[in-house]
Design a protein that fits this description.
By secondary structure, the protein is mainly β. The strands form 6 sheets. The chain has a 7-stranded antiparallel β-sheet with strand order 2-22-20-24-18-15-14, with no helix packed on it. A hairpin with a 3-residue loop joins strand 3 and strand 4. The longest helix is centred in the C-terminal third of the chain and has 12 residues.
C-alpha cells in the first residue's frame, strides 16, 4: 500500500454502505461487544474477514476473580484481538499463552482445532480499569482449514509506526505493508490491517489492490471515505472490490481500523465457534471437540 498524491487518477473504490452495529451482547462476562458483521450480512463484501466485535470501551470495577471467556473451541479460521486499553490473558490447548495490553495484538490460528480462554489479566483485574478492544475473525482458505494451529503475540514495540507528513497522523502496520514498512503478522492470504490515527481536517490517500475488499471501522471521531457521508463511532464504511484508490478524511480527530484483503470465495458454513465449508465438516468439528481431539485446558 502506498501513500501518494499521484494516485488521484486511479479508479476509486465506490462505497457499498455505512453500517451500524447489528447486535449488542456480552461475550462471557468480560467483553461487552457491538457486532458489525456477520450481523449485517456482509460475508461477500468483507471476506476474508468473518467477524468484527467491538468491545467497550467500558470500565470494570476491581475484582479478585478475573472476568472473561472460559474454555471454548475454534476450528477453520483465525482470531485477531487488538487491545487499545486494558490487558487480556490468553492460553490454549496447543500450549500457547500470553498477555496483551495497549497497542498489542494476538493472532491465533485455530485451523484444525484449538481450545482456548481469554480473560482479563489478573493484576489488571485487581486494579480495575477500562477495556477497549476489537476482535476479528479471519477466514482460512479451504486448503488451510485443517492445518496445524498457530499463535502470534505481536507487541506494540514490534509494530511499525509511521508518522504521516504535515501532522496528518500516523499509521501502525499490523499486517501487510505501507510505504515499504511491513507488518509483523503472518497471514495465509493477502491482508492489510492498519491502526490509523488522523487529525481533524486531514486526509490520507491509500492505494489498494484491485479486487480486494476494503472497509474502514471508526473507533473514535468521524471520518469519510472517497467523499462518502461521514461515519461516527462504532460505524463501518464498506467499499466495493473494484477500484484501488481510497481517500480517508477525518472530520474530527479520529482513530480507525483499515481492513483490506483478498476475498476467499469458498462456501461458508458456520456453527458457533466453527467456520467450515460444508455442513458435514461442521458436524465433524462438533464430534471432534466432544471427543477431546482439540484438547482441553489443564
Amino acid at each position: 500500500m502506498n501513500l501518494s498524491a499521484t494516485i488521484a487518477t486511479a479508479a476509486t473504490k465506490d462505497i457499498v454502505g455505512i453500517y451500524q452495529p447489528g447486535s449488542t451482547h456480552m461475550v462471557g462476562d468480560g467483553f461487552p461487544v457491538r457486532n458489525l458483521f456477520p450481523s449485517n450480512d456482509l460475508d461477500r463484501e468483507v471476506s476474508p474477514f468473518l467477524m468484527l466485535d467491538y468491545a467497550g470501551p467500558q470500565y470494570f470495577t476491581p475484582t479478585d476473580h478475573p472476568r472473561g471467556v472460559g474454555e471454548h473451541p475454534h476450528r477453520g479460521f483465525e482470531t485477531v484481538t487488538i487491545v487499545y486499553e486494558g490487558k487480556v490473558a490468553h492460553r490454549d490447548s496447543a500450549g500457547n499463552a500470553g498477555v496483551i495490553g495497549p497497542g498489542d495484538v494476538q493472532w491465533m490460528t485455530a485451523a484444525s482445532g484449538v481450545v482456548h480462554e481469554e480473560m482479563h489479566e489478573k493484576n489488571w483485574a485487581k486494579k480495575g480499569g477500562t477495556l477497549h478492544a476489537i476482535q476479528l475473525w479471519v477466514n482460512l482458505p479451504r486448503a488451510s482449514k485443517m492445518s496445524e494451529p498457530g499463535y502470534q503475540t505481536i507487541l506494540d514495540a514490534d509494530i511499525p509506526s509511521i508518522e504521516l507528513p504535515e501532522g496528518t497522523g500516523r499509521v501502525r502496520v499490523i499486517a501487510g505493508s505501507f510505504l515499504r514498512h511491513k507488518g509483523p503478522a503472518h497471514t495465509f492470504t493477502p491482508v492489510e490491517l492498519y491502526d490509523l490515527q488522523l487529525k481533524a481536517g486531514k486526509r490520507v490517500a491509500l492505494s489498494l489492490p484491485e479486487g480486494h475488499n476494503t472497509s474502514v471501522f471508526v473507533l473514535q471521531g468521524r471520518a469519510s471515505v472517497n467523499g462518502s457521508q461521514a461515519a461516527g463511532e462504532a460505524e463501518l464504511i464498506v467499499c466495493k472490490r473494484e477500484g484501488s484508490q481510497v481517500v480517508i478524511e477525518a472530520h474530527e480527530d479520529s482513530r480507525l481500523l483499515v481492513m483490506a484483503g483478498e476475498p476467499i470465495d469458498d462456501p461458508i458454513a458456520r456453527y458457533g465457534p466453527f467456520v467450515m465449508n460444508t455442513k458435514a465438516e461442521l458436524i465433524q468439528a462438533v464430534n471432534d471437540y466432544q471427543a477431546g481431539k482439540m484438547g482441553h485446558l489443564s
